[in-house]
Design goal:
The chain has 19 helices and 23 strands. It is an alpha/beta fold. Strands 6, 13, 14, 15, 16, 17, 18, 19 and 20 form a 9-stranded mixed sheet that branches. Strands 1, 2, 3, 4, 5, 21, 22 and 23 form an 8-stranded mixed sheet that branches. A 6-stranded mixed sheet has the order 7-8-9-10-12-11. α1 crosses α6 and α6 packs across α7. 55% of the residues are buried. It binds zinc ion.
């Protein structure tokens, strides 16, 4: 059975709820209706005056006062525990210089036990005047003896302090690991910067969080995501530890939003254990295990994305294949043979090409229904655009990556290949199924930012005025579909999720405006008024007017 074809259990026993005076976005348009919720599902939709008599005793009536009711928003690609962890780390997003990064780390570290690791995330040397990778010297001077690991905004590079390198046993004699690079000073001494697989050399010596810490981070993440109006997420690479916690939260009925798991495909023991079981639901209807996440390459910012020709700003470098084409194909075959959906991270055009090749080699009669997907699908050669539809592979995109990357992506790719980047309109027009996500904590999980970026290809500050490569913009309905029906298809959930209708799960996102009608700028101020999962409120804007999505 495919994961999530039907809801397997229900919230039977809870009192019925009647949500009245909503402007409900149904597949047939926006209609003023009431929504009757029973056992976690939509039991009826009724127009004003159509319902006969008062609701039965015991029914809770909620007046939505003319608010817009959207299908519950789903983020089709984020890192749940990573996002929860980022809420407990030094936030380096937007730092305008390496000095500012060091300054923020000093502030965060003061008062913390000196033996404790300090982790951070979000620096981006492309925002600095020299665009150069940093060197750990200033960090070591300011925080001598402290183990520090600071990840780049894309997570595909990091800088470690001297102490952290020492704990990891990295020195001038250490060779680069396969698929990774230890950046060195002119004398050969590691500068602290680690790219792709080299990051693991240090991250693996960071003391591992136990189940209690993982649970705290997952619940903090879910709470923050519910405030952004999200009712469901796809967890792109769930580790064994995280899966154990998710299962225990599911059994205890403590997961506030729905989680669709893409297993961490780099853990052979996890795959041995899980692939022996069919994909499907956890104990409750909040958790599903449906796919395996694999990596074909790294990221563009750190020049880890695998290109078919050299980086325009780094001759001789074509990026990194995290797995060889042969290993990738073997991993795809293994997961697909166990009836699991396969989600391949592929950013560079060569990585996307190899991922499509790996999927195209599968027997379509057996595998099309598994709905394999390419995460990011960022740089797609012209001849590969139509292959998404032909092989029925889902393009899982993150609109905010485009608007974050556009200042420097042209330098990496050059004038010809830049037209291949973030080509959502091309993919859609060629018949590809799209799904939308944020890749949090790489980007904010705020779906309003994703909708805005998808429609405008502008940054929240409004630049560039015409949008970046505006021919690839999506229409408002197409942008909303990324986070509703498209994400549902990508998660094998369209029979109960991604649209509002009788019999569907009562997963709803209540907002103050119609996101398909307002000018795109207005999306950034759209208020999240209420987030409903299986009929229950997981977030309600408070009476003081504070709404969800405060970043
Ligand atoms: Zn990701």
């Amino acid at each position: 059975m495919l994961a999530g074809a039907v809801l397997v259990s229900s919230h039977a026993g809870a009192a019925d709820r009647l949500l009245i005076n909503g402007l409900v976005h149904t597949p047939d348009g926006v209609v003023r209706e009431s929504i009757l919720v029973r056992d976690g599902r939509i039991a009826a939709l009724t127009a004003p005056g159509e319902s006969k008599g008062a609701p039965p005793a015991g029914t809770e009536v909620v007046d939505l006062a003319g608010a817009h009711v959207l299908p519950g928003l789903t983020d089709a690609h984020l890192h749940l525990t990573g996002y929860g962890t980022s809420l407990e780390q030094v936030d380096l997003n937007g730092a305008r210089s390496w000095d500012e990064v060091v300054e923020r780390v000093i502030r965060f570290s003061s008062g913390r036990p000196s033996g404790e690791w300090v982790e951070g995330r979000g620096w981006d040397q492309n925002l600095w005047s020299d665009h150069a990778f940093p060197d750990r010297a200033a960090l070591d001077r300011a925080l001598a003896g402290r183990a520090v690991l600071l990840r780049r905004v894309d997570g595909h590079a990091a800088i470690a302090s001297g102490k952290a390198l020492k704990l990891a046993g990295i020195d001038r004699k250490t060779t680069d690991p396969p698929g990774g690079r230890i950046v060195r000073r002119s004398g050969g001494e590691p500068s602290g910067v680690l790219v792709d697989n080299a990051v693991d050399l240090v991250s693996r010596v960071v003391p591992k969080p136990g189940p209690a810490v993982i649970e705290r981070r997952i619940l903090a993440a879910c709470d923050a995501l519910a405030r952004f109006g999200l009712t469901q997420i796809h967890d792109a690479g769930t580790t064994a530890d995280q899966l154990a916690v998710l299962r225990s939260l599911d059994v205890a009925g403590k997961l506030p939003i729905r989680v669709y798991v893409l297993l961490d495909g780099s853990d052979p023991q996890l795959l041995d254990r899980e692939l022996a079981l069919p994909p499907g639901w956890g104990r409750q209807e909040m958790l599903r295990i449906g796919g395996v996440k694999l990596y074909a390459d790294g990221a563009l910012g750190s020049r880890g994305a695998l290109l078919g020709a050299d980086y325009s700003d780094d001759p001789g470098n074509r990026g990194l294949a995290v797995m060889s084409a042969e290993d990738l194909t073997a991993a795809v075959r293994r997961a697909a043979a166990a009836r699991y959906q396969v989600a391949i991270h592929a950013i560079g055009d060569e990585a996307v090409h190899r991922a499509l090749d790996a999927f195209a080699g599968l027997d379509p009669r057996r595998h099309i229904r598994l709905r394999h997907r390419i995460e990011h699908s960022q740089i797609v050669r012209p001849e590969d655009v139509a292959r998404f539809a032909a092989t029925q592979v889902i393009a899982s995109i993150q609109p905010t990556h485009c608007t974050s990357d556009m200042p420097w992506a042209p330098e990496r790719l050059g004038p010809k290949r830049i037209a291949w980047a973030y080509r959502w309109r091309s993919l859609l027009d060629a018949g590809a199924q799209l799904a939308g996500g944020s890749d949090a904590p790489v980007e904010s999980p705020d779906p309003r930012l994703g909708l805005y970026a998808a429609e405008t290809r502008r940054r929240p500050d409004g630049t560039p005025a015409d949008g970046w490569n505006p021919g690839e913009r999506l229409r408002p309905s197409e942008a909303l579909a990324l986070f509703t029906s498209g994400a549902a298809v990508a998660g094998h959930a369209e029979r109960w999720s991604g649209a509002i209708g009788v019999g569907m799960a009562a997963d709803l996102t209540v907002v103050d405006v119609d996101p398909e009608q307002v000018p795109p700028e207005r999306l950034l101020q759209m208020k999240i008024l209420r987030t409903v999962v299986a009929g229950r409120d997981v977030f309600v804007a408070d009476a003081a007017g504070r709404t969800g999505g405060a970043r």
